[in-house]
């Protein structure tokens, strides 16, 4: 097993019609492994009825594809810009691309064609954290109303994926039927300055103070392009509002000018308490159908829960070091304390997780806040010793 502490994890979310352009760009860059996740983007659609005398607004769903892959940190910005330009992600509604720093543990090291990256990626500069991603896990069927609320506020374009949960539900005996195993995972990408406000809105709207209602955590990212096309309908001017916002972001050098007034003075005790928590996001990636035992082990050690999402692995390792026999993968996400991270990693290390025909991989990154239901007796404890509900 090898460990690399300086990888950039790059996420690219695009409309399904754009995927051929993304696939070609990744192939040109010889990215060794890419994980594909199916999802949908939600936006508001304005319609005119009765000869234009009345209008209505509905939710519109569009198929999306979520790419995630790893790259050497020095090529992070160059790779993101290369992909954004290849797929025109700077245009409204096309998609988003962003990155964060992670470390990974795996048996077979990732190998890159650095000459090709040097020639194609270009820039070696690394940007600053300018956006935040808020992940919210809710029971299936609850995501649409939450997405509609955020869209009406004009904060971002939500992305929704599906998975299944393990945690509180598995400890309730007969009462477990009250908490569905199917989950919806919602991703909100917002300017860093507005993240705290959005957290408060989600907590209230999703009723995360109640058992079994869900889980939220936040992490900071470096974004090159973000989809701002939250509203669709008849175009009223030569430039869309999203294009104007993107231009102003570029001229001002950041998105701080977009800070919402409601968040300017909101530094309540609860938000400050969450921000001080020492949290880690631990993600186990392995062949589909093999992760349940590791999720249960994490629960036994002290994790509060886990969420499992299906992925597809596309591999083109430079030099052909590893050619997997199966491309069906699954990811198990845990948001835990650093002390608990060490215990889980020790337990995983003692198994065959990193061995076999299709060895597993562990990704480790930071989480900056997390919120879920707590039993009254645990009020003095960390808000999340546990993980994704």
Describe this structure in words.
The protein folds into 2 domains: 2-272, 2-Layer Sandwich (Alpha-Beta Plaits); 278-378, Alpha-Beta Plaits, CATH 3.30.70. It has 10 helices and 14 strands. The chain has helices at residues 19-28, 76-86, 114-121, 143-153, 195-205, 241-252, 261-264, 269-275, 292-301, 338-349; strands at residues 2-15, 33-49, 54-71, 95-106, 131-139, 159-166, 182-191, 215-225, 231-232, 279-287, 306-315, 328-337, 361-367, 369-372. Strands 1, 2, 3, 4, 5, 6, 7, 8, 9, 10, 11, 12, 13 and 14 form a 14-stranded mixed β-sheet that branches. The longest helix has 12 residues, at 241-252. The protein starts with a strand and ends in a 17-residue tail after the last strand.
Uncertain residue segments: 169-179, 261-276, 378-389
Number of strands: 14
CATH class of the largest domain: Alpha Beta
Proportion of helical residues: 10-25%
Question: Main β-sheet, in a few words?
Answer: 14 strands, mixed
**Proportion of β residues?**
35-45%
CATH architecture annotation of the largest domain: 2-Layer Sandwich
Q: Sketch the topology as an H/E string, one letter per element.
A: EHEEHEHEHEEHEEHHHEHEEHEE
> Rounded to an integer, what's the Rg over CA atoms?
21 Å
Shape: globular
Structural class of the helix and strand makeup? Answer: alpha+beta
Question: Count of helical segments?
Answer: 10
Q: Say what the CATH topology of the largest domain is.
A: Alpha-Beta Plaits
Average pLDDT, all residues = 80
From the N-terminal CA to the C-terminal CA, the straight-line distance is 30 Å
How many domains make up the coordinates? 2
């Amino acid at each position: 097993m090898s460990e690399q502490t300086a990888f950039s994890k790059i996420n690219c979310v695009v409309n399904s019609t754009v995927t051929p352009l993304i696939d070609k760009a990744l192939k040109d860059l010889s990215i060794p492994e890419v994980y594909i996740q199916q999802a949908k983007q939600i936006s508001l659609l304005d319609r005119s009825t009765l000869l234009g005398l009345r209008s209505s607004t509905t939710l519109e769903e569009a198929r999306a594809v979520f790419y995630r892959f790893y790259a050497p940190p020095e090529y992070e910005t160059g790779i993101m810009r290369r992909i954004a330009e290849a797929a025109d992600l700077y245009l409204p509604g096309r998609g988003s691309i962003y990155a964060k720093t992670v470390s990974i543990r795996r048996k077979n090291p990732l190998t890159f064609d650095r000459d090709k990256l040097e020639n194609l990626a270009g820039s070696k500069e690394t940007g600053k954290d300018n956006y935040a991603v808020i992940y919210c896990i809710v029971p299936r069927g609850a995501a649409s109303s939450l997405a509609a609320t955020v869209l009406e506020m004009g904060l971002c374009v939500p992305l929704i994926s599906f998975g299944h949960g393990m945690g509180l539900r598995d400890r309730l005996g007969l009462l477990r039927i009250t908490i569905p195993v199917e989950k919806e995972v919602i991703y909100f990408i917002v300017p860093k300055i507005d993240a705290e406000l959005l957290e408060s809105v989600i907590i209230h709207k999703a009723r995360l103070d109640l058992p079994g209602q869900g889980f939220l955590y936040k992490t900071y990212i470096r974004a090159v392009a973000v989809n701002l096309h939250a509203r669709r309908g008849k175009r009223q001017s030569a430039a869309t509002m999203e294009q104007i916002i993107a231009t102003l972001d570029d001229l001002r050098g950041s998105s701080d000018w977009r800070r919402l007034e409601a968040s300017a003075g909101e530094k309540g005790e609860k938000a400050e308490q969450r921000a001080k928590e020492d949290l880690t996001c631990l993600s186990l990636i392995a062949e589909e159908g093999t992760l349940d035992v590791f999720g249960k082990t994490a629960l036994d050690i002290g994790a509060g829960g886990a969420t499992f999402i299906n992925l597809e692995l596309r591999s083109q390792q430079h030099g052909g070091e590893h050619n997997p026999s199966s491309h069906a993968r699954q990811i198990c996400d845990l948001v835990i304390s650093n002390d608990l991270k060490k215990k889980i990693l020790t337990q995983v290390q003692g198994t065959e997780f990193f061995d076999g025909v299709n060895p597993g991989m562990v990704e480790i990154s930071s989480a900056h806040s997390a919120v879920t239901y707590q039993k009254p007796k645990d009020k003095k404890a960390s808000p999340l010793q546990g993980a994704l509900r």
